[in-house]
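Notes from the 1:1 (GR / supervisor)

We went over the backlog. Supervisor wanted to see one worked example end to end before approving the batch request, so GR pasted a single chain during the call. The sequence is below; no edits were made to it. Supervisor asked that the structure be written out right there so they could see what the output format looks like.
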Amino acid sequence: MIQTRRNFSSDFTIAQNWKNYGEEEHAIWRLLFERQQRLLVGRACSQFLDGLGGLGVAGDGIPDFRRLNKVLDTATGWQILAVPGLVPDDVFFAFLARRCFPSTCFIRRRDQLDYLQEPDVFHDICGHVPLLMNPVFADYMQAYGQGGLKALGLGHLKRLARLYWYTVEFGLIATPEGLRIYGSGILSSAGESAYSLDDLRPHRIRFDLRRIMRSHYRIDNFQQIYFVIDDFQQLFDATRPDFAPIYREIASLPEIEPEALIAEDREFQPSGQEKKMGRRITAAQV
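Structure output shown during the call:
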């Protein structure tokens, strides 16, 4: 069994030092925030918008984590911990299992407004944290952290990482008003906010846990496939079972490429008249 770190050292947490941000950094936040606010009208899910408003995150500059934590802790018992960058997998999962979200403090440069490979404070705070105000999604994130620690011990981290990618980062949710965005990778991206809902090229597939765990993803382009959930309770329920039998079940099945469709896929249709699509793939085809 993997040994987790119970006491996080200064190697993994730092002080945000909010007073040290300069005017240029706050100006970049304002630019990003105001641009996204215009784009997300009618695109972001209501739970995200409610969380953003409840936290008081706005376009006046990079928020102080201390202020956010007072609101977040009261709402769902979560807190934000400042980190210098990406942390080791076991530390990341242990943070989530303790209802702690690790956030970077730096903000991208002006020449990185449209794409940044490593998450910055805008991605983390404006993309991830608002949904932690939602009790069901907050519980899902904690359950994901607990599942991550188990996956590390079982040697199946890549399968669980795919679940995070296709839900927390790039997930869509069905609502009575139509498809909406809840994935932070989309919510913090000007280009993908429009592409994920409006473009005819990507496929929007109904959520399927096993299918997601078999699916590769790309980090260097917009997604070719998005997975659609019915609600956050569906996500939370998906993390309740012991994943060990699922890992064993799909171990012998072929991997699925980011753009591939399989026979069992159900394309999301607002009318509810959905049908299976694609073609069955074989190991020789992947």
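Supervisor's comment: The chain is about 45% helix and 10% strand.
Batch request approved.
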